[in-house]
Amino acid sequence: MEMTRVPRWRRSLANHRGEAGWTLIEMLVVLSLIMILTSVAMTQYRNSVQTAREGALRSNLFQMRDAIDQYYADKNKYPESLETLVSDHYLRAVPKDPFTQATDWQTVPADAEPGSTSAVAGIYNVKSNSQDAALDGGRYADW
Predict the structure, then answer these.
(1) In Å, how far from its chain's centre is CA 38?
(2) Which residues of the chain are under the pLDDT cut of 70?
(3) One-character DSSP codes across 104-129
């Protein structure tokens, strides 16, 4: 019986043929890890978007309330509407609510001044019209 001599590179290739691919278990472990990391990343992304919107809402409310206070300090009365603040150059424009994407803010009327003959008391405060819940559990309409 004559043995044929097989080159070394063919022997090593033949020995490792069964180990060339991934097993099903390895694939499932890798896919599970990818899914877990993706879900953690998506949660962080959603929270960062929500936090950015909340920051924008706080900033918009602060600017409008500050403009209302400046208007009252200058004219000794509250503005009739938010558009009055724009027309009298206390605001460049009425900002959009980052949650409702509209400029229709909930306004809180001021108490009537004693001895005032004006039928309109004016706007004392401004709030969001969004009924959504904030990350801290409160409602944006209560800010």
Answers:
(1) 19
(2) 1-3, 6-20, 113-119
(3) --EEEEPPPPTT---S---EEEEE--
pTM (predicted TM-score) = 0.71
Which tokens sit at 52?
A: 């950015």
Distance CA 99, CA 120 (A): 29
Cα-flanking dihedrals φ and ψ of residue 129, to 5°? -90, -5
Give the pLDDT score at 49: 94
Q: Are 97 and 103 in contact (CB under 8 A)?
A: yes
94 contacts 103 by C-beta, under 8 angstroms: yes
Contacts 24+ apart (CB under 8 A), 58-65: 58/143, 60/95, 60/96, 60/97, 60/98, 61/126, 61/127, 61/128, 61/143, 63/91, 63/95, 64/91, 64/94, 64/95, 64/105, 64/126, 65/125, 65/126
Please report the pLDDT score of residue 99 as a whole number.
94
Nearest to 77 by CA among 114, 121, 34: 121
